[in-house]
Amino acid sequence: MLAEIITIGDEILIGQIIDSNSAFIGKELNKIGVDVHQISSIKDDKQHILDAIEEASNRVNLVLITGGLGPTKDDITKHTICEYFDDILVENKDVLMHVERLFAKYISTPISDVNKQQALVPSKSTVLMNLYGTAPGMWLEKDDKVFISMPGVPYEMKGLMKDEVLPRLQKRFNRPYIIHKTILTYSMGESALAEKIEDWENNLPSYIKLAYLPSLGKVRLRLSARGSDKKLLQDTIEHKVSALNLIIGDIIVGYEEDETIEKRIGQLLVKQGKTLSVAESCTGGKIAQSFAANAGASAYFRGGAVTYATQSKIDVLGIDPKIIKRYTVTSIEVAEAMALAAKEKFKSDYAIGTTGNAGPEKGDGDVEVGTVFIAIATPKSVFSEKYVFSDLRERTIEKAVNKSFELLLNLLL
Amino acid sequence: MLAEIITIGDEILIGQIIDSNSAFIGKELNKIGVDVHQISSIKDDKQHILDAIEEASNRVNLVLITGGLGPTKDDITKHTICEYFDDILVENKDVLMHVERLFAKYISTPISDVNKQQALVPSKSTVLMNLYGTAPGMWLEKDDKVFISMPGVPYEMKGLMKDEVLPRLQKRFNRPYIIHKTILTYSMGESALAEKIEDWENNLPSYIKLAYLPSLGKVRLRLSARGSDKKLLQDTIEHKVSALNLIIGDIIVGYEEDETIEKRIGQLLVKQGKTLSVAESCTGGKIAQSFAANAGASAYFRGGAVTYATQSKIDVLGIDPKIIKRYTVTSIEVAEAMALAAKEKFKSDYAIGTTGNAGPEKGDGDVEVGTVFIAIATPKSVFSEKYVFSDLRERTIEKAVNKSFELLLNLLL
Prior knowledge:
2 copies of one chain form a homodimer.
Chain A: E1 2-8, H1 10-13, H2 21-31, E2 35-42, H3 46-59, E3 62-66, H4 77-84, E4 89-91, H5 93-106, H6 113-116, E5 120-122, E6 126-128, E7 137-142, E8 145-150, H7 154-172, E9 177-186, H8 190-196, H9 198-202, E10 208-215, E11 218-227, H10 230-248, E12 252-254, H11 261-272, E13 276-280, H12 286-292, E14 301-307, H13 310-315, H14 321-327, H15 332-345, E15 350-356, E16 371-377, E17 382-388, H16 393-412
Helix pairs in contact in A: 2-7, 3-4, 11-16
């Protein structure tokens, strides 16, 4: 069962927004055994939309379209779809009521004619109610192929996918069985990892595919098994993962699809009944935010101090100004003092301290751009390392955040 | 001058990664007057790659391809390109030296045969040296059309684009003149804005296109003018923006392509010689991090306290436990106390305080999930508001961050 995704919007092609919708749709379709063959991002242009729908429908049986359903002039998807299906727009009473309700509840301005037009849909379409916005989803069929149009606003599209599209697709199509297994590894690069598991990889059966998804400081391995024998697929995947664990068990973080090092740290801390705090300078709150972003963080994450200015390190964390003066603000000593101060102030068992210079200019310290000192305070001690990451600000911050996770995870495992 | 982008990788189609490369490439091409006609994300599959390259080359004169150049088995782009151009792979001495140097400098493991194969390139290609990784870029021509292959690792691709691809494209192709002007507005929704500027929009000349790019709490308007008469385009855009300013000047944040509310806040604070700090609970460091992410933040951003646990609000910020007990930890009073405490601790002129419950479960407070209190302390006073944002954790955090920027910007303007 193959699908294609078409995302419509000039803003994607000129790079003003990143098309994250396709990734979400691809992930959700995959879970129900629908394989995305291609994603095409195209212009708000009638002929281009018509061509793209036609080409996609020549390759696959399911075409999902997002974008171009807004109330403004540059949104032409609905009219174009109408033309493709040789149809006319008719007012849908349910959608109109829903739009009126949304305006009454959330929006102070009165409902306008432009907004009321959101209730117009192709007469041949099945309306997919969009509870999160004014533009309804639309389901159309032609020659036994299914076409679905959704708004481009990510949370509206996500809601529609979950509430309407996925349940209907599962009823409408027979699909093969598919299992993905993700293994998150850390502290080893892609090619070193590939060599280490070469024999294992060569022995994978043909119905299991392996992909390497490297990112900063970690590699995600993804096994995809596909076939009709559910039990065979499950058993083989399980067997292969056990075999892999024998080879690289020491660098495996976990097996969840959305596994992250910071989530794993959270789980380990909860399991060990320990807590964490952070004291950040150059990472500016990104470490704290990475933990706080996870639901349930309050079980182990006490908080953090973002002491960006040197004086704040003294005023807020109580770092001894003499240490700063003697070693400079970007130093092993200050990183360790920050971690220890966070541990004390936030009454946590572990603490991370970062200080450095992410650039682009030299800051309060005198180290070269890209230098970061990371300290980890444990219940019994503190240690730290100096790193030189990059001359790109964003990348230095990212690498420092990642490295701090890696150091802490190493300690907890 | 039209281009297409092809991004290769199963990981994009199953949604394990979001294709951010296309957005970067689209943005950079647009700046030099090259229009991206379509972005196609396809599989690591030989026939699919061959088809996609052929189709794109039938539509446009420039095809940029990313991905599938890694050293592992699932990376087949180079061999497939070789087949498309009826070519063979040959070792490139410069690339080999570069790969060896990279290994000697950064990587502790010895260089392997797999890594040495990165130096193999199609004999007809011009090598584009990738200073940031082992996979070189490749430039090939056929029937007066240009094909460029780059690695999929974002910072390697970005480096190649800037160092090699863009300068070469500017030499190779004649391009029309193009101007984009972005106007960031806040605090008004897309359709209300569209109605307010309807007459202005209807009077735009045919060579200027307007797009609405709405996101949380803001709408970016993008004007794109295209033609051969540079001066006419510039003058008309300038004239139209001035006219727009008369209609909605009060909700315009700024005109930079990468304008954000937090950057604008930073500029205003620097201009007024004022500083900022934050005290965050449910937003978990995201506000601090948004400011710290900008180069030059140290000129106005003093730092922040992420007091996630209730006790941390007392221990770190010095909030009076009686206030927490009396009003609960998620309250107007605690938000204001947090903002005032941050202002005092960090010795800043302004401070933001947030406390609330982003969910999914009820936390230390007893307000419903999605409730956030935001306080702003100014040099002279403090005020706060209660909001109920969403029952989705991520969205509540995002909305709270945005709203706090909006409140502060309102004060500074």
